[in-house]
Amino acid sequence: MISLKGFIKRFLSDPVAIGAGVVLLILVLMAVLAPFLAPQNPYDLMQLDIMNSEMPPSWKPGGDDRFLLGTDAQGRGVLSTIMYGTGISLIIGIGAVIVQGILGVTLGLIAGYRGGWVDAFLMRLADIQMSLSTLMIAIIVLAIFSATFDANTYADYAIFMLILIIGVAEWPKFARTVRSSVLGERNKEYVDAARVIGLPPRKIMWKHILPNTLTPVLVISTIQVAEAIMTEAALSFLGLGMPVDRPSLGSLIRSGFEFIFSGSWWITFYPALVLVALILALNLLGDWLRDVFNPKLRRGDD
């Protein structure tokens, strides 16, 4: 395991990692502090004025200093919607990965430690799950959900449904990663010693083996957050994600797409730019973490 000092040293010596970390930190702070920093609350109807709709960025002719990045068709400031929308996208991405992690780590740990028919059954189940497209599953479930309930009910439970669907659909990636790590750990001396002193399998798995399998889980979690955010954005663009009145980055892109050819390009362009920056930063950090924790790529940083 790389030391904290070695970890920080590698981070500070990698310009790409620093750049990705700074971008991610800025976006996270922007989302967390949105209620305090945003010029406007896009959820507060009292702050909206339809007469301000489709105003260009403030430096363009016809722009207003109150709306730095312009406004959308409902009169909401694009900057404010981006700040709030980034928070929703991050909540969905992180929430989905938590669901994936709970399911995947638990099943992967059981499969790797138990072996035999339990391992075979769980891995075949994972194979079946991975053969199905996450987007296809989400489209079917969300289409049924939106057709069954009214728009207000759908809006109330949209975040929960997206987190649950994306999380359940992607658990095999965690399960396979943890299983492969457990297979390499279960026959080591510290596990044999725990068996000899009479510890039950549950304690051996969770208290002894699991801590030694968390490094690859950390790496895959970063990348999976990016994938979950991309999936949510795709669903929102198709009209099956977050509703327009509770925008994520994906629903913001969708809400402005129909106005691109009328000249109001900023409604879609800036949310899309932030989405690309967020996904890129997460993927670059995930790749960097993978390289750092790969023993074959370390050079005396410990």
From TrEMBL:
<protein>
    <submittedName>
        <fullName>ABC transporter permease</fullName>
    </submittedName>
</protein>
<keyword id="KW-0813">Transport</keyword>
<dbReference type="InterPro" id="IPR050366">
    <property type="entry name" value="BP-dependent_transpt_permease"/>
</dbReference>
<keyword id="KW-1133">Transmembrane helix</keyword>
<dbReference type="Pfam" id="PF00528">
    <property type="entry name" value="BPD_transp_1"/>
</dbReference>
<feature type="transmembrane region" description="Helical">
    <location>
        <begin position="154"/>
        <end position="171"/>
    </location>
</feature>
<feature type="transmembrane region" description="Helical">
    <location>
        <begin position="12"/>
        <end position="38"/>
    </location>
</feature>
<feature type="domain" description="ABC transmembrane type-1">
    <location>
        <begin position="86"/>
        <end position="286"/>
    </location>
</feature>
<feature type="transmembrane region" description="Helical">
    <location>
        <begin position="264"/>
        <end position="289"/>
    </location>
</feature>
<dbReference type="InterPro" id="IPR000515">
    <property type="entry name" value="MetI-like"/>
</dbReference>
<keyword id="KW-0472">Membrane</keyword>
<keyword id="KW-1003">Cell membrane</keyword>
<dbReference type="Pfam" id="PF12911">
    <property type="entry name" value="OppC_N"/>
</dbReference>
<comment type="similarity">
    <text>Belongs to the binding-protein-dependent transport system permease family.</text>
</comment>
<feature type="transmembrane region" description="Helical">
    <location>
        <begin position="125"/>
        <end position="148"/>
    </location>
</feature>
<dbReference type="GO" id="GO:0055085">
    <property type="term" value="P:transmembrane transport"/>
</dbReference>
<feature type="transmembrane region" description="Helical">
    <location>
        <begin position="88"/>
        <end position="113"/>
    </location>
</feature>
<keyword id="KW-0812">Transmembrane</keyword>
<dbReference type="GO" id="GO:0005886">
    <property type="term" value="C:plasma membrane"/>
</dbReference>
<dbReference type="InterPro" id="IPR025966">
    <property type="entry name" value="OppC_N"/>
</dbReference>
<dbReference type="InterPro" id="IPR035906">
    <property type="entry name" value="MetI-like_sf"/>
</dbReference>
